[in-house]
């Protein structure tokens, strides 16, 4: 539904135009002056502004200049009861779509609005076509799995159906969510991401739904929540499987009713969001164990999308690696046959994120333009042993020691290797209980979740 903003200091005119546009199927907002109108523009995706020339606080021509500068995709129709040629010419030169004299002809106003919306729609269609051509560049790969994902994204994006993306950490779930948004009719509206694992249960309601000033001790001012910020666009609920049952119930209610209440307020706020969620967990098993609400699972899982692990789509490894090397600004590298075989045989526990890290290491550390198997293995495990992770007993056991490979690495690589091994060791030591591991190392659980995700460390239940 396209949104129209009417800015006029005469209440009768605002009300009349709003009612007429509402009958035509448009969502309308009204403002008695340009200052309030510009505030409404900053909070909503407005397609057309109907703007009076003579206004208090800020004149219509000055407001037109600001609107065209800040929101160039929004069309402005200028109206005035004190029309003259100079004002009309100036308005059109500043980018007004049209100029109408009061008293307004309703038929003419509707015709001008339809013409303006035709231009808006044409611009949106062109942008969608351009985004569609870019999806090949964003989802890199030639494997049957990635081709199937591309086709599914294009089908799903055209609807407002909720999507649940599953897959291991680092496999590219967020990339799929963003691709869905970019190909949808909501592409020009916000894409708002929430990492459910990183938000404490005590703050989740405020984070998702916002709060009023004074709602709790630290609520020094009103805050809009993620649902409200994403209204008109897409809300991406990442790591949804880590959300508490209490928070799940509140999200389910928001989805069902399409409205939310800020903490500390009894006023319902309508929201229009498309929910795309992602998880590395098996939510059906979590439902059986009572860890995830079955009714919420069915609400979220309208269109299931599974992102395969990198080891399951070996044909994508080389295209992705060369893509990441270009992103890193590296010169052209080639890989001999043994190195290419090793790339396919390596299990990629960190998935695409680990491959990107490898590309960055190659860009920084490699002097030779042609990379062989030994050089490649040394980039994975810089202990100069020439053995793979599964073959190298020292590497497998170094959770309990620093290891020569760390001591002989560059500072940045040594830091990354140490962090990963240290956290893997602490997780195993604490039986993969996240809260216990976080307490043992003195880290907040949400920060630990985020760190594990960044490093591509598998979390077990």
Write the layout of secondary structure elements.
Elements: E1 3-7, H1 11-23, E2 27-31, H2 34-43, E3 48-52, H3 60-70, E4 75-80, H4 85-93, E5 98-101, H5 106-138, H6 144-157, E6 163-166, H7 173-183, E7 191-195, H8 201-209, E8 210-211, E9 223-224, H9 226-229, E10 234-238, H10 245-257, E11 259-261, E12 268-270, E13 274-279, H11 283-288, H12 294-300, E14 303-306, H13 317-327, E15 334-335, H14 337-345, H15 351-365, E16 370-371, H16 373-380, H17 393-397, H18 404-407, H19 411-429, H20 434-441, H21 445-455
Parallel strand pairs: 1-2, 1-3, 3-4, 4-5, 6-13, 6-14, 7-10, 10-13, 15-16
Antiparallel strand pairs: 8-9, 11-12
Helix pairs in contact: 2-3, 5-7, 6-7, 8-10, 13-15, 14-16, 19-20
Written description of the protein model:
The protein has 21 helices and 16 strands. It is an alpha/beta fold. It folds into 3 domains: 3-123, Response regulator (Rossmann fold); 139-306, Rossmann fold (3-Layer(aba) Sandwich); 312-455, Helicase, Ruva Protein, domain 3 (Orthogonal Bundle), CATH 1.10.8.60. The strands form 5 sheets. The chain has a 5-stranded parallel beta sheet with strand order 2-1-3-4-5, with helices on both faces. Strand 3, helix 3 (60-70) and strand 4 (75-80) form a beta-alpha-beta unit. Helix 19 packs across helix 20 (434-441). The two termini are 43 Å apart. Residues 132-137 and 383-402 have low confidence and may be disordered.
């Amino acid at each position: 539904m396209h949104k129209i903003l009417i800015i006029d200091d005469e209440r009768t005119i605002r009300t009349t135009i709003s009612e007429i546009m509402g009958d035509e199927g448009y969502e309308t907002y009204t403002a008695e002056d340009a200052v309030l109108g510009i505030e409404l523009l900053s909070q909503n995706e407005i397609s057309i502004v109907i703007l009076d020339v003579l206004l208090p606080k800020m004149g219509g021509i000055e407001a037109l200049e600001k609107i065209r500068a800040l929101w160039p995709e929004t069309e402005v129709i200028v109206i005035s009861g004190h029309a003259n040629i100079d004002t009309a010419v100036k308005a059109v030169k500043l980018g007004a779509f049209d100029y109408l004299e009061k008293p307004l002809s309703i038929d003419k106003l509707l015709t001008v609005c339809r013409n303006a919306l035709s231009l808006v729609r044409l611009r949106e269609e062109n942008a969608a076509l351009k985004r569609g051509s870019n999806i090949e560049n964003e989802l890199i790969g030639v494997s049957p799995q990635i081709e199937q994902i591309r086709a599914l994204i294009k089908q799903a994006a055209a609807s407002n159906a909720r999507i649940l993306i599953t897959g291991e950490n680092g496999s590219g779930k967020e990339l799929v969510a963003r691709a869905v948004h970019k190909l949808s009719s909501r592409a020009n509206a916000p894409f708002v991401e929430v990492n459910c694992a990183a938000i404490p249960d005590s703050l989740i309601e405020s984070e998702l739904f916002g709060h009023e000033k004074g709602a709790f001790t630290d609520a020094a001012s009103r805050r809009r929540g993620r649902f409200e910020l994403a209204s008109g666009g897409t809300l991406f609920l990442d790591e949804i499987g880590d959300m508490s049952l209490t928070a799940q119930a509140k999200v389910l209610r928001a989805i069902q009713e399409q409205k939310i209440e800020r903490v500390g307020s009894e006023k319902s706020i309508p929201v229009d969001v498309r929910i795309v969620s992602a998880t590395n967990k098996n939510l059906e098993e979590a439902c059986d164990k009572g860890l995830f609400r079955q009714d919420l699972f069915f609400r979220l899982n309208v269109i299931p999308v599974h992102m395969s692990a990198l080891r399951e789509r070996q044909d994508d490894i080389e295209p992705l690696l060369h893509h990441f090397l270009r992103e890193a600004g590296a010169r052209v590298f080639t890989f001999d046959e043994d190195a290419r075989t090793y790339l396919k045989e390596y299990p990629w526990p960190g998935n695409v994120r680990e491959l990107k890290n490898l590309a960055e290491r190659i860009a920084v550390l490699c002097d030779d333009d042609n990379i062989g198997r030994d050089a490649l293995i040394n980039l994975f495990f810089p202990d100069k042993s020439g053995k793979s992770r599964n073959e190298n007993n020292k590497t497998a056991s170094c959770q309990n020691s620093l290891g020569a490979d760390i001591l002989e690495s560059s500072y940045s690589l040594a830091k990354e290797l140490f962090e990963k091994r240290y956290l893997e060791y602490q997780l195993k030591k604490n039986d993969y209980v996240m809260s216990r591991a976080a307490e043992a190392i003195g880290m907040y659980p949400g920060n630990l979740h985020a760190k594990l995700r960044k490093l591509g460390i598998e979390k077990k239940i």
